[in-house]
Amino acid sequence: MKSNKQLEAYIPLVNFIADIIGPHCEVLLHDVVDVQNSVIAIRNGYISGRQLGCPLTDLGLELLENKVYLQQTAIVNYLSRTSGGEKLRSSTYFIKNEDNELIGMLCVNILISADGRVVKDLADKLIHTLLNNNGVNQAPLPENEEVVESLHSSIEKVVESAIHKIIDTYDIPVERMSVEEKTDIVRKLNANGIFKIKGAITKVAGTLQSSESTIYRYLSSR
C-alpha cells in the first residue's frame, strides 16, 4: 500500500503495541487520504477480519468529516464491535501533518474478556505515555456500553452499518417514514461523512426505498 513517509514512521509502533499487549489486541494504521483503501499496516487482523487495503470505519469517517482532530489528539476507551458480534475496547490516535491536517489514525482494539481489566489498564498506560510524550491531550467517548464503532472488512458493510446506526434511532419502519424523516436521515449520514464512500448514494437509496435522484434532492435541500 502507498503511504507518505510520515505515516510510514508509525508502522514500527503498530508492531510494538501489538507485541506488548498480545494476540487479543488488534492494531491498525489508517491513511485517511484514501478512505476506501485505508489500512496500510495491521497486526492481529484476525480479530475483526480486516487486512491491508480495508476501508476506514463508520466512526473513522465521522471523525474525519467532523474534524474532531482539531480539538483533541485522541479518543480513548470506547466500545466497538466486530462483524461477528465480539465487543472490543478501542482507542484512536490522530496523526497530523505540519499544517495540522489529519493524515492518519492509529487504532488499538482490545477484545473484552475475563482479563479485560488488566489488558485495559496496560492499554491505558501505553496510550497515556504516547500522548504525554507528544505533549497533547486526549478525550474519552462516553463509557455507557453503547457501541460507537463497527469494524468491517468491506466497503459495503461499512456503509450498511453507518446507515442502520441512524435508521435504528427512529421508531418506525422505513416504508412508513415521511419525506422529512428520510431527508433528516440523509443529512445525518452526510454529516457523518458516509458519502465519501463511492456507491454510498446507491446503498442509501435502496435502504430508504427511494431513488438515487431523490437522495441527491434530499442532500441539496435546506
Series of secondary-structure elements, N-terminal to C-terminal = HHEEHEEEHEEHHHH
First-to-last CA distance = 40 Å
Helix tally equals 8
CATH fold type of the largest domain: Beta-Lactamase
What is the alpha-carbon Rg in Å? Answer: 18 Å
Q: Judging by the overall fold, what is the CATH architecture of the largest domain?
A: 2-Layer Sandwich
What's the helical proportion of residues?
Answer: 25-40%
Whole-number mean pLDDT: 84
Strand content: 15-25%
Provide an overview of this structure.
It comes from Acetonema longum DSM 6540. Residues 7-113 form the YheO-like domain. InterPro entries: DauR-like, DauR-like_HTH, YheO. This is PAC domain-containing protein. Residues 159-219 form the Transcriptional regulator DauR-like HTH domain. The chain has helices spanning 5-8, 11-21, 58-66, 116-133, 155-167, 179-191, 200-207, 212-220; strands spanning 25-31, 39-43, 74-82, 87-96, 102-111, 139-140, 147-151. It is α/β, with parallel strands linked by helices and 222 residues long. It folds into 2 domains: 5-151, PAS domain (Beta-Lactamase, 2-Layer Sandwich); 155-220. It contains 8 helices and 7 strands, in the order ααββαβββαββαααα. The N and C termini lie far apart (40 Å). It is globular and about 50 Å long. Helix 7 (200-207) crosses helix 8. Strand 1 (25-31) and strand 2 form a beta hairpin. Helices cover 38% and strands 22% of the residues. Strands 1, 2, 3, 4, 5, 6 and 7 form a 7-stranded mixed β-sheet that branches.
Which helices and strands occur, and which strands form pairs?
Layout: H1 5-8, H2 11-21, E1 25-31, E2 39-43, H3 58-66, E3 74-82, E4 87-96, E5 102-111, H4 116-133, E6 139-140, E7 147-151, H5 155-167, H6 179-191, H7 200-207, H8 212-220
Helix pairs in contact: 5-7, 7-8
